[in-house]
Design a protein that fits this description.
Blueprint (H helix, E strand, L loop, with lengths): L5 E6 L2 E9 L4 E3 L2 E5 L2 E5 L7 E2 L12 E6 L4 E5 H9 L8 E4 L12 E4 L1 H11 L9 H5 L2 H5 L6 H13 L4 H8 L3 H7 L1
Antiparallel strand pairs: 1-2, 2-3, 4-5, 6-7, 7-8, 9-10
Helix pairs in contact: 6-7
Length: about 190
């Protein structure tokens, strides 16, 4: 089993004095003394509970882990994988993103992370999620569009129906969209 190594938490240029990050992907608070009434009290340090972004699901990640931290004035959110990379992985090329080697977003250990550029991240996502090559987005999966047509681009016969309906001028784009069960944006794209 790998030994856990702790370092001071630095994130987006801010040093958080009471937080540390580990090479295994944990965030902890340090034991400290705080003012309480007329005296002081000891606050025991602990490993923070990581939260997930279930409220805003992301196409590429079932869960991205984050931790709320306080810098003394306000609450901030830090992404654990990025905090681990900042502390433990050199970034000589100054790349802005951190990715997971094995695709497991719950594994934030230093061995599973690496720095990546935005364009490299896009290429990796295209290789990992081939359905994105046609520009597929979350809303198209949720709306059933992808299930219905199997791709983002509309079938040729549907495109010709859009062009004919629009050129006749007797229907609005919204009416055409409702008639063909597609979005107004799709009508606009192919009119």
């Amino acid at each position: 089993m790998k030994k856990e190594i702790w370092k001071q938490l630095v994130y987006n240029g801010i040093t958080y004095l009471i937080y540390e990050v580990s090479n295994l992907g944990h965030i902890r608070t340090l034991t400290r003394f705080v003012a309480a009434g007329k005296g002081v009290r000891k606050v025991q340090g602990r490993i923070t509970t990581l939260r997930t972004n279930n409220k805003q699901p992301h196409l590429f990640a079932d869960t991205t882990y984050y931790s709320p931290v306080y810098d003394g004035l306000q609450k901030s959110t830090i992404y654990v994988h990025k905090a681990v990379a900042i502390a433990f992985i050199p970034n000589p090329e100054n790349k802005a993103y951190v990715s997971h080697k094995n695709g497991d977003y719950s594994d934030n250990s230093v061995e599973n992370l690496y720095w990546i550029t935005h364009s490299e991240l896009q290429i990796r996502n295209m290789e990992t999620y081939p359905e994105l090559r046609n520009g597929l987005r979350d809303r198209n999966i949720e709306s059933g569009f992808y299930k219905k047509y199997g791709r983002l681009r509309l079938p040729d016969e549907l495109i010709s129906n859009i062009k004919i309906s629009y050129s006749e001028g007797n229907k609005t784009m919204r009416e055409i969209a409702e008639l063909l069960d597609i979005s107004v944006a799709s009508v606009f794209k192919y009119k």
